[in-house]
Amino acid sequence: MAIVELKNVAKQYGSSSNNAVDNFNLVTRDGEFVVLVGPSGCGKSTTMRMIAGLERNTGGEILIGGKDVSQVPPKERDIAMVFQSYALYPHMSVAENMGFSLRLKKRPAEEIKQKIDEAAQTLGIEHLLDRKPRELSGGQRQRVALGRAIVRNPQVFLMDEPLSNLDAKLRVDMRAEIVKLHKRLNVTTFYVTHDQVEAMTMGERIVVMKDGEIQQIDTPINLYDFPANRFVAGFIGNPSMNFLRARHADGAVSGPGFAFTLDAAHTQAMASRRVVDVWVGVRPEHLRIGDAAGANRVEGTVDVVETLGAVTMVQLSVGEHVVTAQLPGHQTVRIGDTLTLTCDSDKLHLFDSESELAIGRESAAASSATAEA
Amino acid sequence: MKSQRFANTAMGVLAWVVALLIFFPILWLLLTAFKTEQQAFTVVPNFFFSPTLESFKTALAQGSGYWHYAWNSALTAVASTVIGLALAVPAAYAMAFYPNKRTDFLLVWMVSTKFIPAVGVLIPIYLVYSAVGLLDNALGLTLLFTAMNLPIIVWMVYSYFRDIPKDIVEAADIDGASIMQTLFKVVLPLALPGLASTGLLALILAWNESFWSITMTDHSAATLAVYIASFKSAEGLFWAKMSAASVLAIAPIIVLGWFTQRQMVRGLTFGAVK
Q1: Looking at CB atoms within 10 Å, which of A186, B40, B145, B239 has the fewest?
Q2: Chain-wide mean pLDDT for chain A?
C-alpha cells in the first residue's frame, strides 16, 4: 500500500488545445479507495492509464509511494490493473493466468502455487484453477482478473469499470465483494466508473470529473449534501436534482410557479452579492406535498405519475421547468391535477447563474473541494 | 416444393460442371502423364488408353536432375518462408499494437510494391545480381522469394495480430513482461493458427513461382519450374514427358495442401466472424 500523489497532471494529445485531462491534483491516503466518476469522455480512464503508465502524462507529476514514476514503465510501478474486458490470457488456464507475473519474475514453483491458492480461496475460485477463460461465466472471469491482480501484491490497485460487462444483479453482488476485498487487503485503490451509484456505494472519496477537469473531490455524503457546482449536483443522486431559474430578492428566491425562503446561510451569502439571477436546486426526495399558502412552494400541473410501490414519482410542469418529485408510498395524484409541493429551506441549493458554482457552500460544515483528505 | 427440388438439383449439376471445367486441366495433365508421346499427340482427345509409366521413368531418370531441382524448390521455398515470417512478425507487432500516423501509409505502400509486374524490374535486378554474384544462386533466389512474399506475409500477420485485443498486451506489460516475452508467451500462441496458414500460403507461392526461377537461375540453383520448362526444347514438345514432369513438380505441394487444408481454411477465415 502506498500514498499516490498526482500534481497538476495533464494529458494533451497532439497539438489540440483541449486537454483530455488538465490540472489534476489529488493526494490519497494510504490504503484509500478512490473512485473516479464522470460521463463518457471526461478523462477518468485516461487519468487511470496515466497512473498505470500505459499513457504518458504530458504535464505534472505522478508519485507512487513518494517516488516519481512519470518516466517509469508500467511493469516497474508495482501496480496491478483490472480491465473492463478482464484481459485474461485466453490460451492459459486460470492458475496460469494468475501465476503469469510470478513466473516472469522466476519465483519458485511452491511460492507461486501458494500465492495462487491463497488468492483463489479469497475469491472462491479454487475449483476453477484448471479451466480456460472461455469456459467461465462473466462473474467468474471477473474474479480471475481480480485474482491475477491480488497475487501481484502491488502498492496500488487500478480498476477500470470492472463491473460494466456484468448483468445488474451480479453487479450489485460484486460491488459488495470488491468493497469487502478492499477492507481485507487495505491496498490503495483507484476505481473508474460512469455509474454514480457504484461511486457512491464504494468510494471512500469520489473524484467527479467533467471534460478532463476535476469538479469536486469529497466523500459520498458531502457530494450529496454540499455539491460544489451545478454539474456535481445534477450528476450525484438518482433521480437527479431539479434546477429552476430564479430571481433573488430579500432573502427569497422565486420564479413563475414557485417561491422559496432562504435559510440563514444562504441569505448571508446572497447579501454580499449583486446577482439577482440564480439557479435553485432541490432534490426530488426532498419535495413533499404542501399547501398553496406556504412560504416554500412549487405549483404545477401533473404530467407523469410513476407508481413504484415504495415511492411514487411525479413530474410537474412549473412554468418553463419540469420538476420531478419522489413522494413516499402510494399517492392519489392523477395526471392533469394541479399539485403544490413544498420543501425545507435548508434542503435548497443555490448556484451562480453564470459560473454555476454553489453559493453559500463556504458556510457549510463540509470538507473543502481541494486536494488534501 | 417440387420446383425447389428441381432448382437444387439444377444448381448441383451446375456446380459439378463448373468444378469439372476448373479441374479439367489438372485432370488432363494427370491423364497425359500416363500416356506415350504418340497417344499424347493425337488431335482427337484420347480418354481411353492403357496407362504406362514410361514418361515418369524418363522424368525421374538419373540424368534428368529431378531430385536436384526438387531440392532447390524445397530449400528456397522453406527458407524464404522462414525468413519472411521472422521479418514480418516484429513489423506486424509494431503496426498492430503501437500504430501511429504512418502505419496505414506503410501498409498500403507495401502492397503497392506488388502492383509492378515482375518483368518491369527484371533488368535492374538482373544487373545487380550479376554484379554481386547472386545469379544462379540459392541465396539470391531465396532473397527474391522473400521480397516477393513479404508484403503478403506482413499484411496477413498484421490482421491476425489485430484480432488480439490490445488489453491483453497491456495486461502482459503490467504483469511485467518485456516485449519479447509478450510476443512469445502471449501473442504468438494466440496467433499460431493464423501464422501457420500464412506460412503455408507463402510456401505455396514460393514453390509455384516460375518467373524469377527461370530467369535468374541456370542449373545450380534451378527449381522445378525450370525443370518443367526444360522439357519444352528445340527438339520438339514432349507432351507426355512434360506432363509427367509437371505432375512430379506439383505433387509435393498438392499433397501438403491437401493435408493442411483444414488449417489453411481456419486460418484464412479466422477473424471473419466475431
Answers
A1: A186
A2: 90
Name the residue facing A104 among B170, B171, B176 (closest C-beta): B176
* CB-closest option in B165, B172, B173 to A85: B165
Q: What is the pTM of this model?
A: 0.82
> Tens digits of per-residue pLDDT, B161-199?
998 999 999 999 999 999 999 999 999 999 988 898 899
- Enumerate the CATH 2.40.50.140 domain ranges in chain A, comma separated: 239-359
**Contact at CB, B174 and A79, closer than 8 angstroms:** yes
Of B84, B103, B271, B251, nearest to B191 (Cα)? B271
- Residue A203, judged by CB atoms within 10 A of its CB (0-12, 13-18, 19+), counts as buried
pLDDT for A157-171, tens place per residue? 999 999 988 888 889
The cell for B141 is 533466389
Extents of the domains making up chain B: 2-57, 65-230
Fold of domain A4-230: Rossmann fold (3.40.50)
* Angle formed by the axes of helices B239-259 and B66-97, nearest 10°: 40
Q: Are B93 and B195 in contact (CB under 8 A)?
A: no
Query: How far is B155 from chain A, CA to nearest CA, in Å?
Result: 24
B111-159 pLDDT, tens digit each: 898 898 989 999 999 999 999 999 998 999 999 999 999 999 999 999 9
Predicted local distance difference test score (pLDDT) of residue B67: 86
How, if at all, do strands A288-289 and A338-342 pair? antiparallel
Contact check, Cβ <8 Å, B177/A75? yes
Segment A285-311 shows an average pLDDT of 91
- Is the peptide bond between A133 and the residue preceding it cis, with omega within 30 degrees of 0? no
As a whole number, the mean pLDDT across chain B is 87
Take residue A32 and report the three cell numbers written for it: 484509500
CB pairs under 8 A between A and B: 52
CA distance B202 to A163: 44
Listed in sequence order, the DSSP H helices in B133-187 are 138-162, 166-175, 179-182
What is the SS3 assignment for B22? helix
Which amino acid is it at A314?
V
> Residue B55 to residues B32, B49, B58, B67, B246: CA-CA distances in angstroms?
9, 14, 5, 16, 11
Cell numbers found for residue A324: 420531478
Q: Could you confirm whether domain A239-359 is CATH 3.40.50.10540?
A: no
Whether the CB of A104 is below 8 Å from some CB of chain B: the reply is yes
Question: How far, in Å, CA of A336 to CA of A301, rounded?
Answer: 6
Biggest CA-to-CA distance, chain A: 79
Closest C-alpha among B186, B162, B164 to residue B174: B186
**CA dist., res. A63 & res. B59, Å (int):** 76
Q: With an 8 Å Cβ cutoff, are B190 and A74 in contact?
A: no
Domain with CATH 3.40.50.300 in chain A: 4-230
**Cell numbers that stand for A277 in this block:** 439571477
Q: With an 8 Å Cβ cutoff, is A14 touching chain B?
A: no
The ipTM (two decimal places) reads 0.83
Question: Residues near A5 by Cβ (< 8 Å), separated by ≥ 6?
Answer: A26, A27, A28, A61, A62, A63
Strand A79-82 and strand A156-160: the pairing is parallel
Closest CA to A202 of A177, A227, A225: A177
Instruction: At A189, list the grid cell.
Output: 485503490
Distance between B18 CA and the closest CA of chain A, angstroms: 42
Class for the domain spanning B65-230? mainly alpha
Instruction: Locate the chain B residue with the closest alpha carbon to A100.
Output: B175
